[in-house]
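Researcher: Next sequence.
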Amino acid sequence: MAKKNSHNNPDSSSSTGNGDQEGEGLKGNNSSDTGSRKSEHKAADWREFRAMLYLNQQSMLNKQDEAVNAESKRLGSKWAHPLTAPETGCVLVATEKLDGVQTFERSVVFLLGSGTRHPQEGPFGVIINRPLHKRIKHMKPVNLHLATTFSECSLHFGGPLEASIFLLKTNGKNNIVVDFEEVIPSLCFGSRNGLDEASGLVKTGVFKPQDFRFFVGYAGWQLDQLREEIEAGLWHVAACSSNLVFGGAHSESLWEEILELMGGSYSELSRKPKQDL
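Model: Next structure:
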């Protein structure tokens, strides 16, 4: 179950720096400013369009009256729906079969890479509903940027594998961020060798420290391993809006919130007590 995979550590990229626990290995983005803006717009439209199609399909299957149909056509600011297979930018929502597995029970994993583009890396992501209730300064960081620019940022437990990753909410400024990997429109990720640029973007006023979220550790699988776990019923695969991934102070209730938004039997699962294992 979600076994540790040493071959997909973000630190193992060829672009690694000193390889300490803060994490390494970012891929560059060489597209032009105009191209970045166009691709971002198309990607944003595509994800929301797919979500709208799903909601309308469910409305047609389960329609009861005109009021329900009219409501289903409004996507809303927060949305989530099931997927048939994992993809970069989706979330893995733990099922009741992971109750009792301390690291992953009731967890939501944001998949930063699906392993389909670079199969040798395997799928990997960060758990996004495990705040550590500590700020970076409490960890006494030796990195200058973490000790100064990002000292007040909160920390989250990202998974059992050793590396540190940050998410950046770009607020439509993806054309400015050239050294971070875009996961979904408005959200990129980076690691230690991106801290210099990240700090510079804060110091020049492009972003604020609260636009970043820092994770200690990550989760990773071999490609076949994740597929087998999904087939065994350990994970529900879903797409959701970016404001759920990069939520506020209530991330601990994200598991319930996403399942509730997915509706049907998923909504019923969100209200089930944990299994006694």
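Model: Residues 12-43, 68-72 have pLDDT under 50 and may be disordered. DSSP finds eight helices and eleven strands in the chain.
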